[in-house]
Each structure stands twice: as structure tokens, then as C-alpha cells.
Design a protein that fits this description.
- Helix 2 crosses helix 3.
- The protein is globular.
- The protein is built from 5 helices and 16 strands.
- It starts with 5 loop residues before the first helix and ends with a strand.
- The chain has a 5-stranded antiparallel β-sheet. Strands 14-13-12-15 form a 4-stranded mixed β-sheet.
Amino acid sequence: MRKFTLLSVIQLFVFLIFLLSCGGGGSDNSNTNGDNAGEVDIYLADSVKFNMIYVPGGMTSPAGINDDGTATVADTYWIGETEVTYELWQKVYEWAVNGTGGAAGEGQYLFENTGTQSGGSGGTNQHPVVGICWRDAMVWCNALTEWYNAQKGTGFECVYMYDSGSGAQIVRDSRSTNSTACDNIAESSTAKGFRLLSSAEWEIAARYRDGVLWTYGDHVSGDDSGACNNDGSILGGLGISSVFGDYAVYSGNSGSTTAAVKGKKANALGIYDMSGNVWEFCFDSDGGDRITRTGSYDKDISSLAIGNTFSSVATQTGGYMGFRFGRTQ
């Protein structure tokens, strides 16, 4: 039998600490390869942690509440495990607006809305941020990119740029006075920074089961037992689910307020609140308006179906509007 001396135990302990500090313990995003659907990428910076989930590219899913369309995404991407919490929003917002200017983007941002901690008197900073508009969410993604670079020394490029007349500039102003730059931005197809999801990316992540089978469009994300609402043409002959409320926060179980993220069951990829809690802005334009997905805590079951697509103006805000972000692999 091998004998362990005090010195060997100390050496083993130091070695384990070294591995963890280098990412071997899964404490940061540097150790992930993005090989498997549902792989978790952990980001930890300035005492705030958020996770992203890997989604393979080259997939086509059904789309629409009756599965009469398709959604195709060519490239692999990462999607936020949860909707953006007030904790993360506020950390980045304060750096972006009130920072000392010691790093690129720090203290250089301007927002139309400051963002609100949802949940009423019982809310915590783990509830989704609300009270922001599409422009705020889009510009904040640039701020998140620059904040993360400043914290971790990464070199992610901002996704959203505009032509200032003297060359491409990072969009750092979501105010209505900067509406032309915000609404006519050029979304980089190569930048690896944080960004809003496309509607197709959102739908594929919401419906994913195994990459071959997909959750029906009249179901809640994650619930494959039945439809959440009878719209007259229930798909798959499964009837109405009795457990869709286990996956979604909506008017029937919310107590008239948002819930802290990850309070319900995740879908097959390990993503939470893809149906309900707050509406989620996507990047896409729909006749000048911006696509929103998922339903919210104050809406009934008819809005929860993952095939539903809604739209809102770029300046719309409310206690029911939030977002989650993505990142190109």
C-alpha cells in the first residue's frame, strides 16, 4: 500500500489548485470545446457568473405554431442558459456608463433606459432585468463584450457597428437621439462578441430534443408530453399537457410577477425559461418592428407555445420585456 506523507498531500493540493486556476475545473469558458449539444460554457468575471449552452450548427427545425415552416441555422452558436438577470445587467451597465475609462468602452455608453429589477417587493437580482427596449438590449451586448474583455483579457470583437461617415464605429448609444445608428446597424457575421439571438436560433434552441426530433410548435419548450393550449389543431395527437407549468412562468402560476431564473425545469439543452417569465427580444426585423419570443409571466397559456412569433417596436419597454444573448462559436 502506498504511504502518503504530509509533503505529498500538500503537493497534491497545490496541483489541484493549479488545475482549477487554469480552467481545468470548469471555472471559466477557456476549457470548453463546443463538441456536444448542451455543453455548458461557464463565464466568471468580477464576482458575477453566467452560463452559455452550446448549440450545433447545420440544423433545420420546424417553425411556427403549426410546424408549417422551417428554421435553419448554419453556424454553431452559444445561447444564454437564462434570461439576462438584473445582477448581470447592472454590473455591466454601471461599468459601461459610470466607469473611469480605463478600458475600451468603459464609461463610454449611453442608454435610453436604465433597466429595472423585476419581481416587485419579492424580487431579487436573479430575476430578469426588465424596463429596457430592443435598442438597449442590443447596445448592452456590445457593453458586455467590452466589459468581459476588460475583466478577462479576452479579445472578443463587438458585433454591432455603424458607419459614422468616417468609418465603422461600435454602437454605444441606445438613446432615441441615436435611433438611426441603432436601427440601421451592421451585424458582423464574424465577430465573436455577445449579441442578440436570431429568431431561427431561438426557435432551434427552444425546440431541440436530439437534433432529429423536435418539440412541437404548440408545446412549451422542454415539455414533450402535450400542447399547452388547444388552438383547434393540436399536433402529434398528444392532447393537452398537464405539466407545462413545470417549465414556464405564466399568468396561471406566476402570482402576477416574474420569477427568479432557473426556477422551472430546463429544456433538453439545459436552457431555462424559454417559454414564459419575460418576452425575449431577438435581433430580426419584422416589417420594421423587432421579433420577440416566449410569452411572459402576465400572459395566458396561448402565448407560451414555442412556435409563436410576436413583434414590438424598437423603443417598447415594460415590466414584461427582457432578453437573453448569444455568441457565435
